[in-house]
Amino acid sequence: MEKLKVGILGGTGFVGQRFITLLDNHPYFEITVIAASPKSANRTYEDAVSNRWKLNVPMPESVKKIIVKNVYDIDEIKKEVDFVFCAVDMAKDEIKKLEETYAKAEIPVVSNNSAHRMTPDVPMIIPEINNDHLRIIEAQKRRLGTKKGFIAVKPNCSIQSYVPALNALKEFGPKEVVVCTYQAISGAGKTFGDWPEMVDNVIPFISGEEEKSEQEPLKVWGHIEDDKIALNTMPKITTQCIRVPVSDGHMAAVFVKFQSKPTKEQILKLWEEYSGRPQELNLPSAPKQFLNYFEEDNRPQTKLDRDLENGMAVSIGRLREDTVYDYKFVCLSHNTLRGAAGGAVLTAELLYAEGYLTKNI
After folding, report:
1. SS3 178
2. Which residues does the annotation mark as catalytic?
3. Most buried of 38, 55, 164, 263, CB within 10 angstroms?
4. H or E element, residue 345
5. Are residues 131 and 60 in the same domain?
6. Cα dist. 258→211, 234, 246, 252 in Å?
7. What global pTM score does this model have?
């Protein structure tokens, strides 16, 4: 099988580095372009990153000598790619404009960024949940005036721990949800070396995160109507998002009230049996078991369980009845794998398998 050629926009940053490692020897995709800001351009990737490699795995040999391109050099990049992943670190308006410019140049964009998440005709995908939203791409192409170019995004990293667990229970009608997330410093693109203030510290504020955590699930659970994705009105969600001294892994404490209260046994059965289109298609990055329940009182734990199924599974624990809500439980996902680059790669695999990503003939 001939692989699709892929570019990584923002390839020198934290999430860009994750993309680099995940795409090394990928069965569907090969990295042909790495692009970044003008100050990083025209240097080898190894030189451009220098001592800013943040991952605990080595930089792949295959990318070290790639000459980094200017992310605004779209005409040149177009000649060498079939689609791009976007993980640039810019102002939201700049990202929005950049991604749309790529799409209008007939280069599909699979984005890790938040800029287009609430654009009505841009699908925001958790592949196991709302793969049917890919159909909106045809309406988006009509708006953009493109034949091949489009934008697809993945949601905020924090919602990808608890939204899958709730989605598995949708037949019982979750109507009120309270969530408190405990989020790793890599979600801010940091390590403890970059951010020594986080050692032995908790910060009860992450800018913009609570709004995203309350709104984005309603788009994931929305439906296509008149060339746009209409947001769900249920459940009502309120969140608090807290930065904690953890390197990787976002945990969520969840309280939920249902229209029709299930039994604990029904919940556990639905979690165990839940799977989606990626499992059906046996996509390379898809976890075999998407939702994993731990019976132990002290699990899941960030350090022990964040890397389950190569960081692409969701861990759940401590399901019990609540005195105010129907049930409470905790969830955990790896924020830079399932929540960021890994989720985007899985989305690209789904787009490829469903015929939305093709060779640039």
Report:
1. strand
2. 157, 250
3. 164
4. helix 342-353
5. yes
6. 22, 11, 32, 18
7. 0.97
